């Protein structure tokens, strides 16, 4: 039984023709065909600009394809945070009814689920207060909670783990699992490879609007990680050096006790070890370690030559070099790490490793994009003189 | 139109728990058949229509001192200003009726129309955050503004009623004519709003031009002067404006207790009968990719 069928779907955007700025025209999706079987969890992954959000918009009926057709059997609901549709002057209660009916619920249905929705969002004491007095967290939780209680046949999930704090995310995952147990078909469109691997039965990898691979989650996620490692144009231009004299063969993460692993927590100490193999003793080459976000953006690059470090001399045979981080600044999430070598005179890339996954778990609570290792000092005015 | 079609799967599948509605999402196409299907889908969204309309009415008066009294106060204030000007400085023939009730009975349908079209025609862009995030039949947005305007008109009618009593104007069965006239008013407002919505998604000039357009339209409608004062040779051109017949018909039903001038209502009938379906067809066609534009 097929619940969702996409038949050679293409979507072309022409921002210029519509009087907006941007490129002349581009295909966000190109002849995309896939089937989602009833009851399965289907994941869609891919880098930014691959067409994931376009696919989401087409499935949610927000826009229509340029060619091809999509058939959806059953009631499809997008699990989105509807808070942007809230009216600030109205109370939480009134907004639940308003947003619920926009999402296609009948008033009677909303009334029946009202307690559940409010309970789930954890805003019960404030439900009769205008939402303009809500904190942004309450706003988001209530908005999301309404969508989470739709009871659809097919559930469309967009970056579910990007909503609210850790506890609320866990609650959302619980809700998704409960819906899945009751046989709801799910389509999960996400950057979060861990979530996709954990939740999905099948995964499709999108790149430039086309399906590169579709099938077993582990296999497809591995392909994606490999391509992340292979397609790293941002910081490494130029062709490869003809004969790499140093081969970087692997990246490992070590905790303070020296144990290797693939996960650690924000603010923890971490050592990164790069393994290499050299044909002969070599100087004039630098080792670089790139940190990528799950959506393939370069977040950081660590070089052996930077900031007056001793020029790196590789010994013949196998060896390792390590650098240590006292307090890991990365926010919780999924990262990919790649090591490469660069010839310092020609600036050409020598060899590089496969992308290795680094999972960062919640540790030190940090607001903003990253944790900044720091120390506070406080002085009185007299001491300054 | 044809953004998406829902077909009952009852006859396609064996009946039972497995029969679910089938939604087909396909490229935009101008098709009467698809437009008709989306019209038939609308009753399913009656709850949304009700909630959104109630929301419009509620929100308008939140955090305001006078609250719903504004619905009365607006046409009333306009009427007092016009009464001050037109019954002392400039004399307008009112067919023997006191100017206040003459003006108010014209301002009532006009204010409803102007408020409806003014807000409905920019409603899709104003709700861009919804339109780009959730699917629902988008024609519901302009419809709710029109419904809210008709509601305000009903509230403001209480003042008209008081004036009718105060000036001892005879109430006749012809008063019932205001109901079909209000239906025509809503239909014309919807046709105009749907067309302007479709243009507004692409060209934001509509939002800028709206106050000017309504200003011109106001003076081109017999609100402050009677239809009878329009020179006979211009009558035919003048009544091409659908609001001419609507405002005049509303007023004559209330003040004179006579059947409206059906010839003057011709253009309103034409717009509701022919213009509205075309505007809807076009709206649904643009609507299919509207989210890419707003």
Distance between the termini of chain A: 80 Å
Number of strands of chain A: 19
Number of helices of chain B: 12
Estimated share of beta-strand residues of chain A: 25-35%
Kindly name the structural category of chain A.
alpha/beta
Q: Per the principal axes of the C-alpha atoms, what is the gross shape of chain A? A: globular
Structural class of chain B: mainly alpha
- For the secondary structure, the number of strands of chain B is 2
Determine the oligomeric state from the structure.
Answer: heterodimer
Helix percent of chain A reads 10-25%
Please give the structural blueprint.
The complex is a heterodimer of chains A (385) and B (294).
Chain A: E1 2-13, E2 26-37, E3 41-45, H1 52-59, E4 67-73, E5 76-79, H2 92-102, H3 107-121, H4 136-148, E6 154-158, H5 166-181, E7 185-189, H6 193-199, E8 202-207, E9 210-215, H7 217-230, E10 246-254, E11 260-261, E12 263-265, E13 270-278, E14 285-293, E15 298-303, E16 317-325, E17 333-343, E18 349-352, E19 356-361, H8 381-384
Parallel strand pairs in A: 3-7, 3-8, 5-6, 6-7, 12-19
Antiparallel strand pairs in A: 1-2, 1-4, 8-9, 10-11, 10-13, 13-16, 14-15, 14-17, 17-18, 17-19
Chain B: E1 4-7, E2 22-25, H1 32-41, H2 46-60, H3 69-89, H4 99-120, H5 123-126, H6 128-131, H7 140-166, H8 178-202, H9 205-219, H10 235-238, H11 242-256, H12 266-287
Helix pairs in contact in B: 2-7, 3-4, 3-7, 4-7, 4-8, 4-11, 7-8, 8-11, 8-12, 11-12
Verbal overview:
The complex is a heterodimer of chains A (385) and B (294). Chain A has helices at 52-59, 92-102, 107-121, 136-148, 166-181, 193-199, 217-230, 381-384, and strands at 2-13, 26-37, 41-45, 67-73, 76-79, 154-158, 185-189, 202-207, 210-215, 246-254, 260-261, 263-265, 270-278, 285-293, 298-303, 317-325, 333-343, 349-352, 356-361. With 385 residues, chain A is an alpha/beta fold. Chain A folds into two domains: 2-228, P-loop containing nucleotide triphosphate hydrolases (Rossmann fold, 3-Layer(aba) Sandwich); 234-361, Distorted Sandwich (Coagulation Factor XIII, Chain A, domain 1). Chain B has 294 residues and is mostly helical. Chain B is built from twelve helices and two strands, in the order E-E-H-H-H-H-H-H-H-H-H-H-H-H. In chain B, strands 1-2 form a two-stranded antiparallel sheet. The model of chain B is unreliable at 1-17 (pLDDT under 50).
